[in-house]
Batch of 2 targets.
Target 1
Amino acid sequence: MPDSPRLTTAKSYLSIFRTLDTHQLSSLLSEKFTQTFAPSSISPPGPFDKPGFIAHLTSLTKVMTGFPITILDVIESENSNAVWAHCTAMPEWRVDAMGGGEGEDGQEEEALKKWGFKGEYVFMMWMDASEEKVERCVEMLDSAATLRLMGLMGKAKENIGRK
């Protein structure tokens, strides 16, 4: 059986993180879109409206080429017009964000060890009436791993600032 429009929209939304394509993202978000990261105890960014979330993803492109998501499990609710996805994701850092330059033999492999990161997430996505736009997303972050990611993000921004 083919995926419902709701599930297709959710999968399209999650696939955007592979390239951080904000043009494609914009086309999938309703005008009333809101993005909330949780839990609040780790002081995540946001909450965001549509323009704010697009700006947030744009800022990630300064240090990453992508943040590919792997879907582990999905729950779809017709009654709630929602999809919940349990996922993992790993950032793909820009070489200069890791403090390296192009073509430095052996250093890229060493940097990848230092910069390796894998987080676990639950995306709760509610669609608009058309089921073709995401209206609301609550992203449950892997608390311990996200604190490490925040540290890596800070270091990446610092490295980019030195260039």
Target 2
Amino acid sequence: MNSRPNLKKLVDGESRFVPPLTVSQEISTESAQGLKVTIYSKGEKSRYEMYKRILVKQLKSTIKVWTTRDNILKSDCRKVGRNIKLITSPISVNGDASTLENDVSQWLVSEAGNKFCAIDKPYHKSQAKEPAMAVCIDDATIFTRFNEIATVGTFLQFILVSSSS
């Protein structure tokens, strides 16, 4: 068993399901309160869409996303409680307006829990074919501030009806 760490984790019940070619790592800071940080990453061979197939599933919540986007990927409201809501421009940060055109940050907040995530890829269809990473922080103070910013912006929502094939 010791020569096969993944098998040992599975037997001990430590392994969680993650999509193929993805990695999830939890770390904590050494301060007294211990800030919990989770890192999600995927390789380019994964072909999984980072926001929909990894982050929404791992966070188990609807997410509000601030990033540039292409004309292909839209808000996704097909699963109750696990939607992708796109925050529209402008948002207000300490009284200063910021738009998607002049802001290069890419982040999201979960609706349930206190999760704030910084992502290295925008919400574009092409990111499914590229390696990607998200650093998620579980902290009420950080979450509250970014959630306030997200709430000021409005959301693009499209009700999508899936047809059975």
